[in-house]
């Protein structure tokens, strides 16, 4: 039983298969740095309230730094029988400084310790994701300059609907990723209360001061209820969900661009550095990066499922089930972060095939809705206008011409409200010049949006 933190009451050695089954060191070793930070704060607090001496505190803090250095350099050996990262670090400490090391765990349990570690770790992850989302927004905003003046067909049901400025597309993505950022920030704010000192489930009879550790670790407050602390993983469920929505947004963008790269659409060219070829078909240029961004979203959605199912029906307080929580979070984070690392470059280096887009831009009656609005402005009831334009579209389909090619007499036969200025609202360029409502895809409102986004991003810090 030597070496086991609970050895005192146990009469038998743990079955090695149980050790292998219950270990978490194979996946929680990545908490080493935050575990050390948490322990150092805890030691400082213990010294401040007089539970250990200042000298003991120094020994603990310094030795933990040495251990942290070894772990960072890959010189630290992990052993399954020591179960998790918390036990590894504590036993290494005890091995080096003996009884002083044996005092570190005073007034805490692994239950509040693990929650503290995860919160510190998740906090950094949320910040890293946030910064990467800003980089992605920057890439989209940079595109508004590259594609200045370009008009794209807008779709609903993947059918041509109304034209919009290309920048309107790029900024639509910025809005989605902005909401994702707000969700991360919101999640971070709710998470940022300190679990440390809740101990196993009931707190402690010792004169610990949770405010001190909370402040040292950058928490805004102390969690109010120790039972709640011991069982709470809401912050993981929330952050994994927030990541899943990022993944879903990325998957929609990836799908759209995959379509746009097809010969059928011909809207977009991806740079060679972000495509792969075929081992048999020499002409192929496949959008694998986008396909994998689309595909990897499945994992993150599954991670949401995993964490919720893990938490379902758990009685208070800590249950060992919770050890599996980290797997869902790490997987979701690694996946989403990897996607966000590549996405800005893909956005930045892709090129719209403006000639192909332009050549077919007048197809699909993208001006029909604006023609209807022209009638509304001349006093025609909306439903009547809709019907009149519907008939005109049908007529054009039969004649295989565009609305702008229809003679005035035909327009006037359909409605006596139409005069020859109708040609000023027809055609895609006229439409985008006229779309004027706030937030619309017309040239004017889009210029306002571009301006707002440029200003917003200029004030954001840059990631290397
Ligand atoms: N490795 C454990 C986990 O990740 C640490 C907490 C263990 N607590 C306990 N009471 N056995 O959840």
Largest sheet: 2 strands, antiparallel
Ions, cofactors and other ligands present here are: arginine
The CATH architecture of the domain at 111-147 and 221-359 would be Up-down Bundle
> CATH superfamily of the domain at 111-147 and 221-359, please?
Fumarase/aspartase (Central domain)
Shape: elongated
Please report the number of helical segments.
18
Q: What is the structural class?
A: mainly alpha
Strand order of the largest sheet: 1-2
The CATH topology assignment of the domain at 111-147 and 221-359 is Fumarase C, Chain A, domain 2
Q: How large is the share of residues in beta strands?
A: under 5%
State the helicity in percent bands: 55-70%
Question: Strand tally, please?
Answer: 6
């Amino acid at each position: 039983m030597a070496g086991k933190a609970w050895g005192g009451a146990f009469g038998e050695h743990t079955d090695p298969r149980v050790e292998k089954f219950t270990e978490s060191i194979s996946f929680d070793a990545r908490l080493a740095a935050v575990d050390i930070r948490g322990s150092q704060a805890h030691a400082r607090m213990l010294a401040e309230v007089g539970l250990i001496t200042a000298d003991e505190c120094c020994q603990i803090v310094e030795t933990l730094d040495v251990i942290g250095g070894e772990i960072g350099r890959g010189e630290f050996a992990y052993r399954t029988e020591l179960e998790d990262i918390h036990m590894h670090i504590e036993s290494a400490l005890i091995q080096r400084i003996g009884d002083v090391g044996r005092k570190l765990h005073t007034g805490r349990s692994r239950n509040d310790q693990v929650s503290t570690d995860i919160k510190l770790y998740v906090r950094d992850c949320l910040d890293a994701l946030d910064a990467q989302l800003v980089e992605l927004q920057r890439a989209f905003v940079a595109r508004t300059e590259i594609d200045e003046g370009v008009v794209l067909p807008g779709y609903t049901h993947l059918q041509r609907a109304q034209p919009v400025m290309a920048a309107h597309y790029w900024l639509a993505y910025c809005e989605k990723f902005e909401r994702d950022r707000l969700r991360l920030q919101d999640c971070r704010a709710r998470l940022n209360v300190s679990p440390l000192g809740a101990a196993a489930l009931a707190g402690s009879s010792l004169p610990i001061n949770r405010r001190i550790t909370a402040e040292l670790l950058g928490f805004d407050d102390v969690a109010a209820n120790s039972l709640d602390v011991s069982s709470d993983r809401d912050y993981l469920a929330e952050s994994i969900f927030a990541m899943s929505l990022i993944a879903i947004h990325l998957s929609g963008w990836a799908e759209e661009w995959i379509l746009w790269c097809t010969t059928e659409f011909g809207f977009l060219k991806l740079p060679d550095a972000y495509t792969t070829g075929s081992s048999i078909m020499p002409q192929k240029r496949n959008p694998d990066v986008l396909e994998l961004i689309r595909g990897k979203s499945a994992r993150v959605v599954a991670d949401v499922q995993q964490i919720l199912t893990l938490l379902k029906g758990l009685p208070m307080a800590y249950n060992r089930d919770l050890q599996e929580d980290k797997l869902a979070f790490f997987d979701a984070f690694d996946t989403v972060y990897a996607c966000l690392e590549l996405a800005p470059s893909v956005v930045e280096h892709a090129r719209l095939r403006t000639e192909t887009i332009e050549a077919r831009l007048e197809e699909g009656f993208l001006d029909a809705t604006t023609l209807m609005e022209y009638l509304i402005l001349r006093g025609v009831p909306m439903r009547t206008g809709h019907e009149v334009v519907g008939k005109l579209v049908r007529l054009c389909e039969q004649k295989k011409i565009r609305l702008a090619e229809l003679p005035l007499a035909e327009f006037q036969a359909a409605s006596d409200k139409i005069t020859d200025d109708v040609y000023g609202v027809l055609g895609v360029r006229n439409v985008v010049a006229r779309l004027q409502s706030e937030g619309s895809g017309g040239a004017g409102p889009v210029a306002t949006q571009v301006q707002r986004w440029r200003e917003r991003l200029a004030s954001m810090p840059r990631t290397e």
